[in-house]
Amino acid sequence: MPPRIRKTSEQAMKEIDELRRKWAGKHRGLVEVCVTPISVTTCSRELLHQTFSYAKSHQLKTYIHTSSFREEVEKAIQTFGITPVGYLRREGLLRNYVNLLHAVHLTDEDVEWIAESGARVVCCPWSSMKKGKGLAVSGRFPELLKKGVRVGLGADGAPSSQHVDMLRTAGAFAGLFRDARMDAKAVTTTDALKAITSTAADLLGASNRTGSIEKGKRADLVLIDVRHPDFVPLSDPMQALVFSATGSAVDTVMVDGRIIVKHGEVKNVDFEELFRRAEKALEKIASKMGHQIPM
């Protein structure tokens, strides 16, 4: 790890506490703080225990990259004599408030341990496919779902997946594992949609206020235009939503009762100004890293 981003356990814990005090629950409760140690092979045992303990005491969700690359699993076995999931379990850190990110290279034993612990798992299919992690070959997500493990979907950030379109992500998740298992029921459309709605809210620690349409929950809604070409002619809405639709079919987005997108257009955003800021940020980052931006 580059020295300029390396931190002591004391520095890391101070930063987490400052972030929580400053941002937790801000912007009408839309901003939350979580604890995110990178992985068992990049964090000291002391830091892992401190972060997990802090998360539990402050009722924060914990996210940790786990068995993301084959090399990470090999390093963990060489260093600890056990897989990353096994190490978390041995240290008493595999808990139901923990979200395991990526989890591409799991063993049968890992799957059993995750199911027993109540830990959640986040799959980032586009990131995995783009980086060639081996998700289709090694991923155990159909097995995790059968064991009752709560599986959510993520993008791993726009630079990692090239987009954050969750409808595309749901289709990739279901299609990838149906093909890998040669079984059209390996991941159902319901599994895929829950992974970006109700289960996703659970993984974020927000299921008491969003993720499903229920009395008392926030009006966080997405309205789809079923006259969009993705849906016409329409015979099976669920199949169309998962395997045909993309974000371009979204007509309206409502966040806590406020309309953010209407008729497919984001309200109150100056896109040209946003593009200029993004381009300047890229130039600044590239300059610091000594990279030439292709024209």
TrEMBL record:
The UniProt record lists the Amidohydrolase-related domain at 7-259
GO terms for MF: hydrolase activity, acting on carbon-nitrogen (but not peptide) bonds
The alphabetical list of record keywords is: Hydrolase
UniProt KW Protein biosynthesis keyword? no
Domain of life, per lineage: Archaea
Query: Per the record, a Pfam family?
Result: Amidohydro_1
Which protein are we looking at? Amidohydrolase-related domain-containing protein
The record lists the organism as Caldiarchaeum subterraneum
